[in-house]
Amino acid sequence: MPLEFGLWRVDDKPVRVATRPMPLESRLEALIEADPGILGDPLLLIGRQVPTSHGKVVDLLGMDADGGLHVLELKRDRTPREVVAQVLDYGSWVQALTNEQIRDIYASYARSRGQAEELDEAFALRFGGSPPEALNSTHALTIVASEIDAATERIVTYLASGFQVPVNVLFFRYFEDEGRAYLARTWLIDEAEAAAPSAGAKGHGKQEPWNGIDWYVSFGDEPGSRSWDDALRYGFVSAGGGEWFSRTLRSLPIGARVFTHIPKVGYVGVGTVSGEPQPFEDAVLTIDGHSRPMADLPLKGTYRPTAAGAEVDGQDRREWIVPVTWEQAAPRERALWRPGFFANQNSACKLRARFTIDEVSRHFGIDQDSADA
Prior knowledge:
Elements: E1 8-9, E2 15-16, E3 19-20, H1 27-34, E4 44-51, E5 57-63, E6 69-74, H2 80-94, H3 99-112, H4 119-127, E7 138-145, H5 150-163, E8 167-177, E9 180-187, E10 198-199, E11 214-218, H6 228-234, E12 236-239, H7 243-249, E13 257-262, E14 266-273, E15 278-279, E16 284-287, E17 290-293, E18 311-312, E19 315-316, E20 320-329, E21 348-350, H8 354-364, H9 368-372
Parallel strand pairs: 6-7, 7-8, 11-13
Antiparallel strand pairs: 1-2, 3-8, 4-5, 5-6, 7-10, 8-9, 11-21, 12-20, 13-14, 14-20, 15-20, 16-17, 18-19
Helix pairs in contact: 2-5
């Protein structure tokens, strides 16, 4: 049985506030849209009255901080069989949604509200940081109701407790007292005991597609180590101090297009890898058409391992250099950053975040059509 709430007014002596039927249960949909926080766990609403491929319409569709999807279906006046069957049908639909389809759903919802932000921006404003690379790896099904009958309660408890179906009922209790209206919420099944959100369908489509050429590079512009001024002037990216830092950078292939980001600052350049990775001591860069050992250049950074040597605890601590021909790049002071941009702790990784690619390319005046050709 769900936990029941009572409400008392205690101005003088305790007076219990009566629970009443909610005048318009459908009003819950608008209330949730206005403030998803009343559901408890933080959610980003990405759709309202979302049409499915089965010819039905989902009342509300949300996303949590892990990229999992949440189907919110109002009971209204439907029978237990109807409402439970409907939400399970929605689960079969939502688990197959691809990254692109989810973004399209949000784009349509944003336009209907007169908003122009992309999903990445909305996610960052709601949760902080960019969305995970894989969306819809889990999903949860919630029936929203002011009250349910015993049959619905039995069916939902049976599915959730006996078969770990990620379904639950969220009750809203409605109170009126001296002209004021109040809502209180409670779950049919305690969240700690409820089934874990269901894993989405495996396979293709959960991540944004990769175009085979774009890479993310994190350039640690750190005093006494490396300098973005050097990288901008001479054309390279670098990483070092341990194999974890340099390994991914060394995986950059010649011809890769790198979107270069200074942590906690922003994106500063886009260029093409033009040479194989080399340790600093052996690195040669092409300057004005001439090959120059990097160690002979007037540099602001040091790019040398610790005093203990190039190898500490069996790890390669050397700074590794990857030559880059900048297509467009800017000083640190003109870095670009927007909420929702992709950032990663790896020194290099495949860049799938279309929002980041498009916005950084637009900022630097890069023609995406020709770049993707």
